[in-house]
Predict the structure.
Amino acid sequence: MPEAEKSGFLSLFRERKPVMAMLHLKGSDPDDVFERMKRELDIYVLEGVDAVIVEDYFGTYGDMRRALAYIQETKPDIVYGVNCLNIDAMGFELAMEFDAAFVQLDSVVGHVKPRDEEALAAFLELYRSRYTGCVLGGVRFKYQPVLSERSLEEDLAIARGRCDAVAVTQDATGQETSLDKIRAFRAGLGDFPLIVAAGVTPENLRESFKIADGAVVGSYLKDTHRDDGELSAAHVREFMDAVRRVREECA
């Protein structure tokens, strides 16, 4: 399957096979969260990640606002996205307020009861009409219920109309996303952008990137390779070195 064309979501990035690194907003209090975020951001910029995603994985909505305001003011040239967990509307609102290039939504189809799909479609249509950036949308995403009565192929077809790139994961944070699942998503999406959003490592990167168009990375970049660890500059460098080698092979 040929790589997705560099248009839409993929056109946000300078490099092929972009890597989006998580800012999880960990900290003991708001000031600690903010200072950690700044240190992590500096590491990501220095080591050449292609984008960062501000997410309230450990922090709060207030932490997200403070982080986004800082990035907008001090790092306007980097690509940044936002994921407001569980409250998708506020992710859109934050993205619009702070000029984020994209919103990540953990699920855009199949996670609500069939009777609520119409309302979900209306919600996404409303906010996409207001927001000029891109949407990275999950399907069969980690921790999200699968309430769809449709096949995976049918839900992927719907997702193509609701987002600009689809994110695929296995079942948990840090868990490797199987090649079988990545292949199934590619088969259902054709050349539509596909991002592996969990469990990518330097060891499985080459095979994942033969199929997918990019990655979201968080846990592997921590000192413990777990989500609750401390960001490791050495791990970020190791990962991005592996990415650059794969890009050269794919050139």
About this structure: The first strand starts at residue 19 and ends at 23. The helical segments are 30-47, 61-74, 88-97, 117-130, 152-160, 179-189, 205-211, 233-250. The CA atoms of residues 120 and 126 lie 10 Å apart.
